[in-house]
Each structure stands twice: as C-alpha cells, then as structure tokens.
Amino acid sequence: MPRCPLGSGRFPRPLSVLLPLVVGSIACSSSTDETPPAADGEAACGQYFDALSHQDSSCIALGIAASSLYKVVDKPAFVKQCALDLAAPGTSWSPAFLSGCAEAMEKAHTCERKTVACEAPAGSLADGAGCTKRVQCKGRLCRITGASTTGRPTFCGTCATVAAEGGECKTSADCDKTLFCLAGKCATTPTPLGEGATCAQTDSGGAVASSLPTLPCEPGLYCNTLVIPLASSTKAAPKCEKLRSKGERCTLTECQEGLKCFDGACGDPADARDVPVVGVGAPCSQGVRCADGLTCHGTTEEASTCLMRIAEGATCTNGGTPCTTNTVCRDGRCQLNDAALCR
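RE: above sequence
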C-alpha cells in the first residue's frame, strides 16, 4: 500500500498541523493523488530565517543591517529554537504559517511587521497559563517578568489579555494593537509632536518615566532618547529633534532616510568604508568587527577582544563569554528556551 509521508524533519509538529496530515494519510491511495503535506517544520524555520535576514535595515529597531543580526553561522541554532516554538503549547504558529510569512516578505520586499501574512492569530492558552510568546495565548499577550522565585526559567511568562482603551499598561505591548500606552493607560496614539517638544512621558511627580514609551514626533524628527536621565541624573528630558544630515554626528538612528550611522557620522551606505574583520584573540571595537560566530567581549572597549561564543549545551557562567546566538546561559549551560518548561 502506498505511504503518505508526514515530512522528513526530525522536529515535532504542533498537533493542529499533525492531525490533518494523519487523517489524510489514511485516505491516501497513491503517490500521485495525495495532497502535499504542510511545510516541514525545519524547512519552514530555515525559510523564515532567510526572509528575516533579507529585511532592509529600516525594519530593525536600531537601524542596522538585518544580515548582521541573522548571520548564516547562527542559522542552525535559530532553526532549533524555532522548532521548539512550533511545538509550544497553544501556539498559533505552524510550518505552513511561517512558510507563508516568509514567502510574502520576500515577494513584497517588506518588513515582517508590515506583512499581513506574518500577523499570527491568537493562540489557545487561557489567561494564567505559562508561555514564552504571545502567539500561544488566547488573549494575545505573554507577560514575562524575568526574575522568578518559583524555580521557573526566567524566559517563562504568563498569558494575559491585551487591554482595551482605558485599560492599564506598562508598555504599548500591553494594549490592543491599535492603541498606545499613554500615562499608564491604553489610549489612541497621540498627535505627533513638533521640533523642540518634550517626547518623554512623565510620572505623577513630573519626572521622566523611562519605562513608558516615548511620544511620537512629526515626520523628519526623532525623539532623542539618549538624553533620558538615569536615577539622580540632571540630564535634560528627551526632545523631538531634526534627523541628522550627511556628515552630522550620530549614534544609532538619528540619520535622515537613506543615510546610515557609520563611525559616529551620518553617511550614504554606498560610501561606507569596509570595516576590518578580525579573528579569535584580536582586539575589537566599534570600527573593528569580529568574524561571524565570534563576539567582542571585554569590560571596556579598549580591553575587548574577539572570543568564540559558547556552543549550545556547553558550560557557561553568567557575565562570562556569551553563549551562541539564540541560546542563554541557564543552570550553568547554554540552552535554548523550551516552552514545555513553562507549564
């Protein structure tokens, strides 16, 4: 009797994807009339990684090239973590969803956050259930506090429901997607501010509330958050300032559209000089990049060197050499985040 394969990937699939395939295999009569199975999990995760790596730098919060965040050397660990996410309890992610998201991003050359096909539906877990991502939760919010006194991993959160207008919030992620966290309440996005206006939110005492999102500025302006005061600091509150032109000083994202921040000044990406790439043990800094798979590590920029990241499963110490991308140092070993540990 002909067989209907369920896919060759070695990673488990969500039950919502697996059941239709099992039912389909019972009815299968030949290799020519069977319905193709949904995208294999491992392959879909790899396709998703590739699409993310092709995003324009404007898609990334820090305005840097996506390829520098999604390096080929980091792809295997990304795929393994992605497979765990596909198997997470209650998740609305599936191999077919990730594949469709990736295809739509590549076809339209758009950011993930601007791609309708990448907007995952709500998960199936009720409020109070353990989670690692919002796509597991029926209420579309996974609230992760970090510190834990219960022994649960710090990457675990708790499912909650996004707040409607007037509901309490700490960040805009706590609100329904059309709303903004304004003075601790979910509200419509405020009118963009003009040049010179203070774009930081304040607490009841009038001090800058750095935990709340900054207010939007008008087109051509940006909120200079680099002056947000720390505790007991006397720095001025951030204000809406003009985006910097070519040759003006910059730190991250202050440059006008089409320009990028290179070595502290706004410049045309086509004019950017090649940054030297060095290997293990070599000194590194903002102007000297470590080879892929390495990390620039040290207590100061002057004393930093390129080190090999610690591999998944290897021994590590918090504050020591970083683990390989997509893993964290937990219980003395570099590990992936398995949502199954958050029940």
